[in-house]
Amino acid sequence: MDLIIILQAGVASGTVLLFATIGEIFAERSGVLNLGVEGMMLIGAMTAISIALVSGNPWLGLLLAMLASALISQIHAVIAIQFRADQVLSGLALNFAAIGLALVFGEGLSKAGALPLLPRFSIPLLAEIPVIGPIFFTNQSVLVYLGFLLTPAAWYYINRTRPGMHLRAIGEFPAAADALGINVALQRHLYVFAGGALAGLAGATISLAVSPGWFSEMTTSGQGWIAIGLVIFAQWDPLRAAFGAYVFGALRRLILDIQGPVMLLGLANPFFYNPYWGFFLQMVPYAFTILFLVIGSREAMRKRVGAPAALGLPYVRGERGL
Amino acid sequence: MSATASRSRRRWSFPWAIRVEPRMAQPRGFGTAVSLGAVLLALLLGGVVLEIVGGNPLRAYGYMLRASFGNFGVISDTLVKATPLILVGLACTVAFRMRLWNIGAEGQFFMGAFGASAVVLAPLVPPDTPAWLTILAMMVAGFAAGAVWGFIPGILKARLNVNEIITTLMLNYIAIAWVNFFIFAVWTEGGFQMSRVFPKTAWLPRLADYAEQFSQLRGITLHLGLLFGLVAAVIIWWVLDRSQWGYEVRLTGDNPRAARYAGIRIALNTVLVMMLSGGLAGLAGMSEISGVVHRLQGAISPGYGFTGIIIAWLAKLNPLAVVPVSILFGALILAGREIQPSGVPKMIQGIVLVCLIASDFLVRNRVVIVRRSPEA
Predict the structure, then answer these.
(1) B255 domain residue, yes or no
(2) Residue of A46, A267, A18 lying closest to A146 (CA atoms)
């Protein structure tokens, strides 16, 4: 069991969570809580496989996966923004509908043949750096590198650009943003759309790069929910989100790999000799999500940081409230 | 909508406009009519999807109707499916009334099944215990195990303000892995992924048990769990709508600030409501394994916990309305088992929830088409 190899695979696995988490950060920063991430990821994973199989082109699969998830996110956007429904329920509704649709359209995909995958390569020079090179820059999927670029780009966009400032304004104080002439409803639609596209990208990352194939609901196995938890842990900051995502990615890989070797740290590996302990290992990512939430909540209480002030609240011009 | 109104200020405009205004008074039965309309729309949309994937929606729906209400026997099967749904629907209703988003009824259901099984398999009671006592012990254990699973997110929410949506959902996965550990490793029967069959003393009485006296009851699997559901519905209705505690719960849900000023102990009630909610879901798990499956195994729920969310909402959080709505969804789940592709019932449930939540807009608002005055 080579730690470097586990961490290398962990970075790839964490990329899935990274895309989903940053997508949800965009939606929540604009004031829209979207609990449909799991469903949108499943739609993305299903679309990516279907299109890649039919066309033989994984890139087309990736693109249409993003489009499909972004379009389905607008169900939630319309109900939450235009119809001003409760965003928790609306997001759950989107989640269930999207999971159902993905299962119906994905029927039989698990028996499909060889899947064209996205390319993997090493970055010349950077791969030479000791430790960091093999973990981050050697033989990774192109999507992993996209994740490295997306994280700082998202941070810069939110914190240093004018549209990013508008994004924060509509999430914190939509009435003020409205008074400045920002179209709150339109912007919120767009950020939910972007969040959907990134959730679709996350789904496609699973099915075309990290663990290729279609395993119905087990394709995502709750990672969309972990992403929503990570948003809270990350305090709506893409850089903290990346940290959390890669930690969880490494954790997932560690759990898969720890059962393999006969010896562990010079001792007999208890997970090898008691294969049923694997069920407790399976619980670890979910238990860690709760732990991360507790840590995040305590820190938020202490530092008095919190969710975007208008998160979950519909904006109606002229009504009292935020 | 406001966007349409502002755009109309320029030159030519469409002579009619859609205006949305808050609805002050509702005609009697309007809410129910809109909900029914939403369900019909959802079935229609589901049919369109079935058509796209190459199914025959009319035949599928006709088949579903016959397979769930066609004769006395299948009506009994429908009620058997509705039994756990009533209890998880009530579990979600209790929590949602306080605006606590318990998405973890699925995990609480599994823990309830585990707790009830432990009574027989651990065993917590001696094997020669009379049936009524065994079943009572299983009910208590199932309720308690579910309540523990509700206590964890409840206390985290009350003490540390940890988002209960995520914690309850994460606990679902943990509960399923927990039950899997026991059916694979501890209580496995001959290496199969299930426990041994419970002794007859741990079975809830079924109508078929009386086939010797009444021959028409032969093969009717309806069991005592349905009575648990009906009694629980009445109790929960009384607690929520008639008791002082229920008033506190509803007030906290509708207006937490007012509740705090009124001196209601919100943190305590958060924990209690989550435990009651989890306990009800746990009781559903107990009723399912004691009344239907008669052993602990992995595939005991086709997502009952999630269907409970939809049921609670379709019943407008009214505990008594949960019963008929659960029967409807029991039929859907029963008939859906044989429909291909297998995701269809899940998809229809999801679309029902989408349509239902969207349709609420019509209940809260009037949509009127008005003629624009020329100067506008």
Answers:
(1) yes
(2) A18
Q: Burial code of A140-151, b = ≥16 C-beta within 10 A, e = fewer?
A: bbebbbbbbebb
pLDDT class of A299 with cuts at 50, 70, 90: confident
Q: How far apart are CA B211 and CA B198, in angstroms?
A: 21
Calpha distance A270→A261 (Å, rounded): 10
Compute the half-sphere exposure of residue B82: CA atoms within 13 Å on the CB side of its CA.
Answer: 26
Give the per-residue pLDDT at B1.
Answer: 44
Domain boundaries, chain A: 3-118+133-303
Segment A126-131 mean pLDDT: 88
Tell me, what's the pLDDT at B364?
A: 85
Nearest to residue B202, comparing CAs of B265, B111, B139? Answer: B139
Task: Name chain B contacts of A280, Cβ cutoff 8 Å.
Answer: 177, 181
**In this structure, is residue B184 part of a structural domain?**
yes
Number of domains in chain B: 1
Interface check B41 vs A, CB under 8 A: no
What was the pLDDT predicted at B180? 94
Alpha helices by DSSP H, A3-36: 3-29
Other Cβ atoms within 10 Å of A265 Cβ, number: 7
Residue of A nearest to B365 (CA): A83
Number of other CB atoms surrounding residue B250 within 10 Å:
17
- Provide, as residue numbers in chain A, all residues whose Cβ is less than 8 Å from the Cβ of B180: 279
Angle (nearest 5°) at CA B66 between B65 and B70: 115
- For A14-33, how does the pLDDT look when each residue is reduced to its tens digit (9 = 90+)? 999 999 999 999 999 999 99
**Residue B326: closest CA among B87, B29, B94:** B87
Beta partners for residue B192, in sequence order: B189
What residue ranges of chain B have pLDDT lower than 50?
A: 1-5, 8, 376
User: What percentage of residues in chain A have a pLDDT greater than 70?
Assistant: 99
Side chain identity at B13, as an amino acid letter?
S
Closest Cα in chain A, distance from residue B360 (Å): 8
**CATH number given to A3-118+133-303:** 1.10.3470
Terminal CA-to-CA distance of chain B, rounded, Å? 15
B174 CB neighbours in chain A (<8 A) are 283, 286-287
Q: At a CB cut-off of 8 Å and minimum separation 6, what does A314 contact?
A: A80, A81, A84, A85, A87
Which amino acid does the sequence have at A235?
A: Q
Mean pLDDT across the stretch A265-291?
A: 86
Q: What is the CATH number of the domain that holds B183?
A: 1.10.3470
d(CA A287, CA B164): 14
Does A1 score more than 60 pLDDT?
A: no
**DSSP-derived secondary structure letter, A117:** -
Of B265, B262, B281, whose CA–CA distance to B95 is shortest? Answer: B281
**Alpha-carbon gap, residue A184 to A279, rounded angstroms:** 46
Q: Mean pLDDT, to the nearest integer, of A109-117?
A: 82
| ipTM (interface predicted TM) | 0.92
The size of chain A, in residues, is: 322
Q: Which residues pair with A237 in a beta bridge?
A: none
- Range of the structural domain that residue B203 is part of: 54-340
**pLDDT for residue A120 is more than 80:** yes
